């Protein structure tokens, strides 16, 4: 499946009013029509967005003045899993390992999400790139485009680290909640493979500092 965005200026500013209105509407519709999916996607999205903004602010030296703003990174994190609303709940909420066919369907959610986001008013190029690329891996083994290293947009790499951490710290149908220590150990094991090793180091340092306060 090919990602087909609606052409919009890359440098357009975030339209907060339009985005917030659209996100409220999406939340209301999905809460009513797909309550189980909503409970799976929405709390994780909000937790990831809040922590990503804080993390990105601490990594300001890595974020170019010509790159995404904190607002764009936060909105990208908030909408990174919106494509999961287009995945069958039986697949998304399956309390066991997905088979090959189900995993292939699951890997479509960044494409579904990026296409949907490109049609929402108020979004920008950087927001759409987060949604599209948040499952790319540092070693090039991710999806949907198999990007690796710094070819993966920085905002997507930031969101990926936080996305993994918040998922590990959350209870899912197929796993229990992990402690902060266990979650950071797993991040360290994923550094250099799935995740940007420098950002993992920055993130763990940030978590340790927050615990000391």
Descriptive report:
By secondary structure, this protein is mostly helical. The protein has a single domain, classed as Hypothetical protein af1432 (Orthogonal Bundle). Helix 7 crosses helix 8. 34% of the residues are buried. The N terminus is likely disordered.
Helix and strand layout, with pairings?
Layout: H1 16-33, H2 35-58, H3 70-79, H4 89-92, H5 100-106, H6 109-117, H7 125-133, H8 154-168, H9 180-190, H10 197-212
The whole-number mean of residue pLDDT values reads 87
Rg is 16 Å
How many strands, which pairing sense, and closed or not: the largest β-sheet? none
Question: What is the distance, rounded to the nearest whole angstrom, between the alpha carbons of the first and last residues?
Answer: 47 Å
Question: What are the salient characteristics of this protein?
Answer:
213 residues, mainly alpha, Hypothetical protein af1432, globular
What is shown here, in short?
With 213 residues, the chain is mainly alpha-helical. It is 58% helix and 0% strand.
């Amino acid at each position: 499946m090919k990602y087909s965005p609606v052409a919009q200026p890359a440098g357009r500013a975030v339209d907060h009013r339009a985005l917030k209105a659209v996100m409220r509407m999406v939340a209301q519709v999905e809460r009513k029509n797909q309550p189980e999916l909503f409970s799976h996607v929405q709390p994780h999205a909000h937790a990831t967005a809040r922590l990503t903004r804080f993390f990105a602010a601490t990594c300001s030296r890595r974020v170019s003045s010509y790159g995404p703003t904190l607002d764009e990174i936060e909105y990208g994190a908030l909408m990174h899993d919106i494509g999961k609303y287009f995945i069958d709940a039986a697949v998304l909420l399956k309390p066991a390992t997905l088979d090959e066919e189900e995993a292939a369907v699951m890997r479509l959610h960044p494409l579904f999400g990026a296409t949907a986001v490109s049609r929402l008013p108020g979004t920008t190029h950087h927001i759409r790139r987060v949604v599209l690329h948040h499952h790319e891996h540092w070693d090039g083994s991710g999806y949907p485009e198999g990007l690796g290293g710094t070819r993966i947009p920085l905002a997507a790499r930031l969101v990926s680290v936080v996305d993994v951490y918040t998922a590990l710290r959350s209870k899912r149908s197929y796993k229990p909640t992990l402690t902060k220590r266990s979650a950071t150990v797993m991040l360290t094991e994923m550094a250099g493979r799935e995740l940007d090793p420098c950002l993992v180091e920055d993130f763990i340092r940030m978590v340790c500092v927050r615990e000391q306060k």
